[in-house]
Amino acid sequence: MYRLFPCAALLTALLALFSSVLNAQPYTINHCTSSNRIWPPVVSTQQTGGGGALVNRYRFHLDWPRVAGTSCHQNPPSPIVAGQDSVARWIYFWDFGDGTFSRDSAPERIFAPGNYTTKVALKPIYSDDDDPVGFTTNTITVSSAPETPNYPPILPSGAHIALNVNWAASRPGGYLVFAVTYPKIVASGQPGRTVYLAFPQNEFVFDTMQTGPQPTLESESLVWDEKEHRVYSWRFETPDTTPTPNPENTLFVHLKVKNEVADLFPADTSSVLTHVLAFIKIDGQVLGGGGYQLGHTKNDKTGGFSGGGVPNHSPWSGAEMTARTVALNWASDPNYIEVSPRYLAPGTKDAVLTYTIGFYNGGSATADTLRVNAHIQRALLNPTMPATLSSQPVFPTAPTTATVGADHVIRWAHNDANLPSLGQAQAVGFNSKNCFGEVKFQMTTRPGYAFKSGDTISAIAHLRMERSFVSTNTDVLRVRSRCLPSPWFWGVKVQYNLSHTVAPWEHQRGYQVALTLRKPLGKVCGLNDNSIFSRWLPKNAFPLFWWQGELGYGQTHLVYNDQRTFRVGHADITPIMLRFIARQPQLPGMPRSIGLSAGYTASFLLHGEENGNAISWSGSALTERIDHSVSVSLDLLNLIGKPGLSAGMGWRWRNTALVLGAGEWYQHPFTYVHYTF
């Protein structure tokens, strides 16, 4: 008993001490929820100009001290989790209500006269807290304009759509705020426009609109990067002159990351890379500012025939698209590695691959030392070519080449990066985007190797910044082909039948005019994901074989046995014609120009004359008024498109019912011109 008592007393004392330590913590993560958390209000301060007069410049900040004494609050000096010695850091994302935003912790904004509601979304770093949380100020009323508002453009030069996000990463169950910026309709007569936001439906769900009208859920989903995306849209048709004369406007959309995303994390790293898309269609315009338009070259669009091309019938064709990379992981860590292009078509040789490794300084001090090690499968890469690279920001004295060690690891190091930290951004108030950087490696694939379906190249990067070490997601380049449904082509065909004699028949002449319908036998493949948004489809992506049907009218002049002269009119039905349009050889400037065709035609004899006398088919069976024919042709010109043009020559064998009971065959050459529209 005596020996056990000190042990019991010591255990009791340790428990009491541990309990007091726990009670000393301001809060734990489990105690603070979105329902009982108290957040600081937004404070707006109107600034003064020369002479002390108030101007329409406002400065915003969060009043953290107001909630410092509450039992469950989020104050920057408070620990994020029990026992963690780093301070809480926040990502700010301000929505000023005038179509602009800021990531500063205490931003300033010049307003035009009007009423504005300013909101901010906060996202905690290294935390499992709910995020983001929106705050709303009282409406700001600006009645005078001693300063002219300056609206910094959000849209890149020449672009019509931009997509920003409050943070480049989130966790399962977390939230992100996406800012979709587009050009407003500012005057009557400007075309209407539709703005779209698309996200992987297995990874995100639409939560709410922070600013902007409620969207419409599109009935058709979009498949991009092998993921099915849910698409929301906003339609604008009337001039928007409120709240400001800013020519751009921004929609602020909250998306929630599905909890099920945790099941998608690969075994080697608890992070996946995904993309959210934004795109815009403006009525009557073909947009290309984002650089995603295909088929605008002479070869792909016109094929040597002015005005031609193969329209893409995707509901998103003609749109301009931009994509935003987002990392999903438990730490909300935006470090990532990404390859471009994301996949190669089978048969690709000597491709150039660009690997982008993104990183950020999440500490409290400037980072001078950076180390980037990229582990990329080298079996299908050029083993002798050193990786060339660029870096952002442009670090002074940064190396422009990387070393490839015997272990096939690509290494890049910089000892004077001077990358600002997130803690400094929050304390001083500069834009947190200055804390981000990236390195781009550019490499070529193995010389002469033709990639096959199923080939992959995986890559992962390890980052060291001062004393911190982190691994990125694993990104995989895949070899596959994007396919789209092939369109239908309507057309008109004019055929002239040339003279030819094979006893007892002499074919003197004839013609045929037909309405045609053709369709490729298969899908349009060999495309990339961005082909969904292209206005035109490249012709060489179409299948080799096509089906064609025809319905028309024609006349034929014949002589039988040098004694009986026939002139007949007939309705022609071609239920099947198989066309082969080769990819090689090509005439100069005319892709897919050579082809072969074979088909069957049934001709119903409508009227006719024999030696100048009308032919009567009364009482004749239907089969006695039908001619059957087969034909083959050499297509010397096949300009696929809408409009498109094809021409060629061929040979037809026809079994005619003109000589009753004979079932005679005659033959003749022909030439044709076919126009599709």
Task: Describe, in plain words, how this protein is organized in 3D.
With 677 residues, the protein is mostly beta strands. It has four domains: 138 residues, Immunoglobulins (Immunoglobulin-like), CATH 2.60.40; 182 residues, Sandwich (Immunoglobulin-like); 126 residues, Immunoglobulin-like; 194 residues, Beta Barrel (Porin). The chain is 5% helix and 47% strand. It has three helices and 42 strands. The strands form nine sheets. It has an eight-stranded antiparallel β-barrel. Strands 11, 13, 15, 16, 17, 19 and 20 form a seven-stranded mixed β-sheet that branches. The longest helix is centred in the first third of the chain and has 21 residues. The protein is elongated and about 110 Å long. The N and C termini lie far apart (102 Å). 37% of the residues are buried. The N terminus is likely disordered.
Short structural summary:
By secondary structure, the chain is mainly beta. The chain has an 8-stranded antiparallel barrel with strand order 32-34-36-37-38-40-41-42. Strands 11, 13, 15, 16, 17, 19 and 20 form a 7-stranded mixed sheet that branches.
Outline, from the CA principal axes? elongated
Distance between the termini: 102 Å
CATH 2nd-level architecture of the largest domain: Beta Barrel
Beta-strand level of the residues, as a percent range? over 45%
What is the makeup of the main sheet? Answer: 8 strands, antiparallel, barrel
Q: Helical segment tally?
A: 3
Rg, Cα atoms, Å: 35 Å
Average of the residue pLDDT scores: 80
CATH topology of the largest domain: Porin
